[in-house]
Amino acid sequence: MAKVSMIERQKKRERLVKQYASKRASLKEIANDESKPMEERFKARLKLSELPRNSSPVRLNNRCQLTGRPRAYYRKLKLSRIMLRDLASQGKIPGMVKSSW
């Protein structure tokens, strides 16, 4: 199980990303528009850099919904490999059976 502080930090990042998404998108659009003057594009880049770092979607991690584990994450199930194995062994994931040979 991940530390509670790490899970809460991730939730805070998700809130910030959602909060600043439209502002960040508009500033990026201005900064990348070649038809605008160089000064205006530069000002947009400066404003973009003044936004909180955690408002960038790149800083988000995928985490297991049950344990908060950041590694070995299955996107389709939103679980880590460990929880996937435990739930499959308990028969709680339909269609998944433990292999044996």
UniProtKB/TrEMBL annotation:
GO CC terms of this entry: cytoplasm; small ribosomal subunit
Q: How does it assemble?
A: Part of the 30S ribosomal subunit. Contacts proteins S3 and S10.
> Matching InterPro entries, A to Z?
Ribosomal_uS14, Ribosomal_uS14_bac/plastid, Ribosomal_uS14_CS
Signal peptide range equals none
- Quote the protein name from its UniProt record: Small ribosomal subunit protein uS14
* Any one Pfam family match given in the protein's UniProt record, by short name: Ribosomal_S14
Organism of provenance: Jannaschia helgolandensis
RNA-binding is among the record's keywords: yes
Keywords, ordered alphabetically: Ribonucleoprotein, Ribosomal protein, RNA-binding, rRNA-binding
